[in-house]
Amino acid sequence: MIGKIRIFLALSLVVVGSLVFVPLQLLSMKTGIWRETVILKVWHKLIVRTLGLRIHVKGALSSRRPLLVASNHISWTDIMVLGSFADVTFIARADMEGWPLIGWLSKLQRTVFIERERKRTAGDQASEIASRMAKGDAMVLFAEGSTGDGNTILPFKSTLFGAASMAISEGAAEQVFIQPLAIAYTRVHGVPLGRRHRPLAAWIGDQDLMPHLKVLMAEGALDVEVHFGEPIAFSKGSNRKETSKLMESQVRAMMQAALADPRPSS
């Protein structure tokens, strides 16, 4: 019963918040009266608090531009977590565009949707990402190409780093900075999550969204750690596959460090 009440109250709060913030975001996008991320940060913070997520940040988003942030990916909540405190724009898989609420929010944040299985569109998508980076947007790339279970890092796909190469080849920038970022869900109600229970936070593959959302709303009180590494310069002579492997290694190391010694809940 308590879980159902919590779900009802949480959904009600999200709906009311959306009725307030969505018109403000549309106004911001049309007039430029605020930075587009200002309203989104508040909206994301509302969702994060509604879900009971406690965020612990180590390091910071680099101020260098153009910037591509290479991150692991565990759940749709990763976007809410990062968006609640960082001025970033996301690169997401194409099917997210049609999701209720999340797809709408993604469009309001000017998310770049990519069809990873269609090579014909890859060039146009990479070009858009390169253009956005050149304009100063910090683009977050979920480099695994899918979501993991919260225990391990999936291999990074080097093809997804094509936007960095294109930004340089098109003359939009002489170099692109690529920053590793690790996300780890570490505790529930203050108790460290073990390997068996970490998938509680994970949203994997074709899992339905609403059942997962209900589980999170009913459970609540999850701790999530966000660790930023040092950015590296990617230039004309850089090797995309080697860069992908380096980012994968650094993200894996930061994630495992967070899981091995999670910060206390606060």
From TrEMBL:
Q: Which SUPFAM superfamilies does the record match to this protein?
A: Glycerol-3-phosphate (1)-acyltransferase
InterPro entries (UniProt xref): Plipid/glycerol_acylTrfase
**Annotated Gene Ontology cellular component terms:** membrane
Q: What are the TM regions of this chain, as residue ranges?
A: 7-27
Task: Tell me one Pfam family matched here.
Answer: Acyltransferase
Q: Where in the cell is it found?
A: Membrane
Q: Name one GO molecular function term.
A: acyltransferase activity
Instruction: Give any single GO term for biological process.
Output: lipid metabolic process
Limits of the Phospholipid/glycerol acyltransferase domain: 67-186
Q: What is its main location?
A: membrane
Q: What keywords were assigned to this record?
A: Acyltransferase, Lipid metabolism, Membrane, Transferase, Transmembrane, Transmembrane helix
* PANTHER family according to UniProt: LYSOPHOSPHATIDYLCHOLINE ACYLTRANSFERASE, PHOSPHOLIPID ACYLTRANSFERASE
Q: What is this protein called?
A: 1-acyl-sn-glycerol-3-phosphate acyltransferase
Q: Which organism is it from?
A: Mesorhizobium neociceri
